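Hey L., structure's done. Input below.
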Amino acid sequence: MNPAKRRAIFERFAQANPHPKGELDWQTPFQLLVAVILSAQATDRSVNLATAPLFRDAPGPREMLALGEAGIEHYIRTIGLFRSKAKHVAQTCAILLAEHGGEVPDDREALERLPGVGRKTANVILNIAFGHPTIAVDTHLFRLGNRIPLAPGKTPLEVERRLLKFVPPEYLQHAHHWLILHGRYVCKAVRPDCPNCLISDLCEYRGKTQAPA
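Output:
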């Protein structure tokens, strides 16, 4: 895909949704961090249902750590892998309090040292909470990177690096959200909604779906 097409794709995303937002509910970087840890292999809706009472009763790391693992489990038991996630959240709270004054660090290496936080989660925090022009490659972005193909690669890291290289700089801040929303609601895994896709004429995917006759 040539640079002109890539630019045109992001121009359309920007025109259609100038200020994209994620679908997780949060008020502080700490709450975003917890929500993203909980969102692994879970829907944003299920996470929001669990974190509404959790964040009400334990809005910061000190209050959440006071709940203990069992207490955190009580709030998130409807989410998959809730026991391991509760452990990670409790350990993360302890580290934030001991090493970062209770604040979420604006630093990739420090973030990736937190339990339950890998490169993708760190990129989400850096981009959304701190405004870094990073791109977190989840299953949606990996699919779109290879299908459209905006930035083909065999691994999420390869796709991430190519997106950072190929996305026009002025669109990097919101590229993560645009692509996640596009992959979640339009360019879906099983049957992409090509007839209603705003970039269908720019996309080079050979298996485009057709509108019902």
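The mean pLDDT is 95. Residues 64 and 105 are 18 Å apart (CA to CA).

-- N.
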